[in-house]
Amino acid sequence: MKRIGVLTGGGDCPGLNGAIRAVVRSAIGGMGWEVVGFRNGWRGVMDRDVLELSTESVRGILHRGGTILGSSGANPYHEGGIDRVRATLHDLDVDGVIAIGGEGTLGAAAQLTEDEIPVIGIPKTIDNDLSGTDYCIGFHTAVQIATDAIDRLHSTAESHNRVMLVEVMGRSAGWIALYAGTAGGGDAILIPEKPFDLEDVTAHLRRRHSRGRSFSIVVVAEGAVPKPGTLTLPEYPVDERGFPRFGGICAVLAPEIEQMTGFETRVTVLGHVQRGGTPVANDRILATRFGIAAVDTAARGEWGTMVAATGNEITTVPLKEAIAEVRRVPEALYRMAEVFFG
Hints:
By secondary structure, the protein is an alpha/beta fold. The chain has two domains: 3-138 and 279-322, 3-Layer(aba) Sandwich (Rossmann fold), CATH 3.40.50; 140-275, 3-Layer(aba) Sandwich (Rossmann fold). The chain has helices at residues 16-31, 42-47, 82-91, 103-114, 139-160, 175-183, 198-210, 249-261, 281-299, 319-322, 331-338; strands spanning 3-8, 34-38, 50-53, 96-101, 119-123, 163-168, 188-190, 216-221, 265-269, 305-310, 313-318. It has a seven-stranded mixed β-sheet with strand order 3-2-1-4-5-10-11, sandwiched between helices. Strand 10 (305-310) and strand 11 form a beta hairpin. Helix 1 (16-31) runs parallel beside helix 9 and helix 7 (198-210) packs across helix 8. The N and C termini lie far apart (61 Å).
């Protein structure tokens, strides 16, 4: 009998419990395997913090946000924990680990694979910026939450003739901003892939007002950047991995826009609201398909891969390829959105 482990790492998001449920139900019911859960990502593997999972223990969790296993950004390579990972898997007789996570969690998984520790990845990140997959768990729910917020802001913006800046997550890629901004009828969308000139943005807003449109909605990814030499942003603090801890760009843009246009400008930062709550149907289905596919991949012995969505199919890609680069919004997709600006 095979015995596998499962963990969730990095930031939480809606859909994680659906993936855990699918792994457990597929492994136990379909394969006759045993499953253990590691609490708090790779931290649980290093610290041997485990939870025996059964079909009963994952009952009723599909619709729940967050993760029953907990999560963390712990990385064995940052903490000298490789030997502890090996010891845990050996002592618990675990044949391999299914890691549900984003760039950091799966980056560690790719390194562990090179060190001959068997891992299969499931892509999870609301930013939707992992290479090799069209969609990641959590993205669709984050987009829906942001879209709902934009819909609500339309009425208050129109009532007060305001410019409303909506800041959404998106450190290195603007998928949430682009999708939610397009679905919510945003009048401008600022994303990391397309450096902006605030002069151009404010000129666009003034043109809208000159045509009789009394309000505007500007959707801004937290990692949006100005064109060099046009605007100075404050230095962002860095997290434990050395990545900038973005947030607050709209607080910088709002007074500049108000001064340059004369239009009252307000800011809404959605922040961690985008990560929370009940997953939408698309994320529940995607998580379920990924979880089943990960178990099937383990059964075939294809360790060192990540399950991925390609069109309507679930495929696999090498973990090393999956984390090799950030998946960014293509130029053509942004041009599509620009058609509706204004």
